[in-house]
Every structure is written in structure tokens, then in C-alpha cells.
Amino acid sequence: MFANAEASHQHSLETLNMLQEYDEFMESIGTLIDLGCGSGLDTEWWATRVTREDNPRPLNIQCTGVDQIDQELKELKQRSKELKHQKNETLGYLKHFMKFNEIKICNISRDNNIEIKQVSYNEIEKKQPLSIKKIKQKLPIFFDTVNFSDFITLSSDEKTNAIFNYLESTREKTNNESIRIKK
Fold first, then answer.
1. What is the pLDDT of residues 4-14, one digit of tens each?
2. Residues sharing a CB contact under 8 Å with residue 57, sequence separation 6 or more, in sequence order
3. Whose CA is closest to 172, among 141, 129, 138?
4. Integer Cα distance of 65 and 41 in angstroms
């Protein structure tokens, strides 16, 4: 086994380049199937062959590569996780920086004439919505904590307000962070 696709291809090139020296053999190949082609470097080599004449012409070898791509998919999945982690980490640093700094004007790159007028950090606190299911879960807790003899003396509106104030106080809060860019 080789460490990577490039190392495997380099090993194959020793044989492939030797085969290319046999003009009649190379020109006799019309179709090729590369079983276990991996990333396809050897298959590409066959597909791009030309004659060794002064005025080279393509051999037009029809190539098909077949392989299991489980390892490539695992590597791609791992790389995707790494990139997502890097993105989140960078975004975290940027958000932290933007909490304390406000950029007024900047250029994205020397090659791009887009000018950014303002970049600002926003943090918005939102309360989670109350569902019927959550209300049903919280009402028994309310009645366990309230002084029932005082509660029954309240007017209908006061009872309603007491229940809704309790429900409001128990709603979970989340912080949404964002960076706003104005062009």
C-alpha cells in the first residue's frame, strides 16, 4: 500500500513510461478499464497519451476507472468537518473582535473594488416561543409554588396576569450573534 494516491501513481509511472516506448502496442489500445483506479491518476495518464511522432496526435484511448471510494469519502467527510471547525473558530474570533471594535471603511482585496462602509457586531437576545406542550409542563409547577388561598381571591384578569407573568419569566433565552456588513 502507498501513503497516498500520488505515491501510488509515481510507482505506476515506472511501468507506464516504459510501455509508452512501444509505439505499436500503444496505438493498438482502443479501450482500457482501470480496476482499482483510486483517484484516477493512472487512468488520466492513459486517456491523455499521444503518439511519439514529430507532430504528436492523440491516441484517443477510451478509459473507464472503477474503484471503491469509501476511503475517499471518509477523507472528504473528515476534511469537511475540519473546514467547518476552522470556519466556526474564525467566526468566533471575528465576533469577539467585533464586540470591541467597529470597522468603518475597508477594502476586501486589492483586486476587488468593493468598498465596505461599515462592519458591526450585533447580539440579539431572543426568548424561546411558548408551545402548548411547554405551557402544560409549566402550569403544574406554577400551582405548586403559588399560595392557592391568595390566588383564588384574585380577579380573573389578575389570575391570568399572574399565570402569564410566571410563564414569561420561565421562557428560555438565546443569544443570536451576527456581523452586519454595509456596502
1. 888 888 999 99
2. 50, 51
3. 129
4. 10
